[in-house]
Amino acid sequence: MITVTLRIPEDVVEELKQLAPILCFSGYQPLIRAYIGQGMRADLEKLENNRTYAKYLSNPLFFVLFVPSWFIIP
Fold this sequence. Notes:
Elements: H1 10-22, H2 28-58, H3 60-66
């Protein structure tokens, strides 16, 4: 791991400190890491889904097989 310095409002840190033991974390810093990791994975999944969709859209066969002719605007 590397050290990263963040400025976080005091009230947020206090809430993280209260939440950490309730969510079975050893402290607020592991909880922050978990939140960052979850958010990052969710964003990566969205991006991957968008790439997959874009890949389909860039394939002319997609329009022949899956898009009704009335939907295509000349």
